[in-house]
Amino acid sequence: MSLAPVFKNAESRRILMAAYEEHLARWPVPAETREVPTRHGSTSVISSGNRSGPSLVLLHGAASNALMWIADVAELGLSHRVHAVDIIGEPGRSAPTRLPYAGSGYADWLADVLDGLGLRTTRLAGISQGAWLALSFATRHPERVERLVLLSPASVVRDRLTFLLRVLPLLLLGRRGHRVINRIVAAPEKLHPDAMAYMDLILAHTSPRLDSSPLFADDELRRLTMPVLLLGGEQDAIRDCRAIAARLQGLASRVETCLLPNAGHVLVGAAPRMLAFLN
Questions:
Q1: DSSP E strand boundaries for 61-159
Q2: What is the phi/psi pair of residue 263, to 5°?
Q3: Prediction pTM value
Q4: Contact present, 136 and 106 (Cβ < 8 Å)
């Protein structure tokens, strides 16, 4: 399958990069940004927090970038050196290289990023498609992952058919449809208006991926030898987090689960639960 480019056109890229810089200026703690070379292109990383603490690498979801961690990074950084990564092929500063979800491409890319950061091992956290990437890496390189945090992970179970049937027609409605999609994904959480506006802007100026990552096989999930924390919302519109918990607990040996009854796909304020596990 030929993958659509990340940005709709050069003007869309300019608009989104300007918005990125505006939001990055609000990063709540001192930070440094760097460009890490990889086999699939340059990768942007925002590093902040405790320089003497253990490393924690954060992977954002699809149609997003490292700025999605802006509300959690200060708390996470009290005890960790936090590296928020812009995943390639997404609307951030990194190379606009979109790789197939099948195969080892994304895991190989993340290995290059960790090598570039000087991290032989790390604690790793991802949300949604970023959690899929974290799983893809951890099942291939379990020796490099000290602890693994999965928030609403993709590809452990199939996405809800009801979500797909609701969203696909909305993709045809332009910006109005994009706004509805973002509110379906965020519900029941009421996100800050600035965050919703940024999400709407991203969908308006990027080309969505229409392919999906394949389900992990049983033997892949059995390779998760590190401690794993699953965080999920019981009102997640996209995935059945109870089914995800059941499958992970049946295959991996060291899984903790925290299912939040009043939360959906977007888990706001997850830092305290993450730190209780990480520390």
A1: 81-85, 122-127, 145-151
A2: -115, 155
A3: 0.97
A4: yes
**Domains of the chain with CATH codes:** 10-278 (3.40.50.1820)
pLDDT band of 241, cuts 50, 70, 90: very high
Between the alpha carbon of residue 183 and those of residues 20, 186, 187, 255, 259, the distances in Å are 21, 5, 6, 30, 21
Using CA atoms, how far apart are residues 51 and 78, in angstroms rounded to an integer?
10
User: Cβ of 269: how many Cβ atoms within 10 Å?
Assistant: 11
Residues 6+ apart with CB under 8 A from 138: 124, 145, 148, 223, 224, 226
- Yes or no: say if 80 and 54 are a contact pair by the CB < 8 Å rule: yes
Count H helices, E strands: the chain? Answer: 10, 8
Task: Give the Cα separation of 59 and 185 in Å (integer).
Answer: 18
Total residues belonging to the chain: 279
**Between 3 and 150, the higher pLDDT residue:** 150
pLDDT at 42: 98
In sequence order, which residues have a C-beta less than 8 Å from that of residue 194 and are 6 or more positions away? none
* Contact present, 137 and 110 (Cβ < 8 Å): yes
Strands 228-233 and 122-127: unpaired
